[in-house]
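Deliverable D5.2: sample structural annotation.
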Amino acid sequence: MLILLNKPFRVLSQFRDPDGRANLGDYVNIPGVYPAGRLDYDSEGLMLLTDDGLLQARISQPRSRTRKTYWAQVEGSPTDDQLRQLVSGVRLKDGPARAVSARRIEEPANLWERDPPIRYRASIPTSWIEVVLTEGRNRQVRRMTAAVGLPTLRLIRCSVGDWALGGLRPGEWRHA
């Protein structure tokens, strides 16, 4: 079984939390499924949940090189050089990291409102970029964009491998 979930902002990528924070169990009540990978508490978007241990390992293990595509709303206007740096590689505290691709995009169509909304500053523009990775270290996209001078304000994972969000709204899920 494979479930596609649009994980809302400020929801943990686990089924229980001793501190009472919102978690996957608040949205999916199907016994025996587990997350295939993680998505930060303050990130949104596609999470895959499965009862198939081999599929879970294939998706979440770095050596599987599964493509994960993210939409990042960043502070500032990305230059060609900053986008090239993301692809050629940046140095992070836990080693070098590079994107498969990075490009400017328009704000994604049919994007839902985030609650609370990102901070708005009239003097600093924001832009959207699409970043594709084949690994998924802790807060990797955020750390990479910050390393090139483009702090991430909002991060949405829109696809993992061949699976995509489609029309799922935050908190909605469907069988794949």
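Annotation notes: The two ends are 8 Å apart (CA to CA). The chain has a mean pLDDT of 94.
The annotation will be released with the project's public dataset once the embargo ends.
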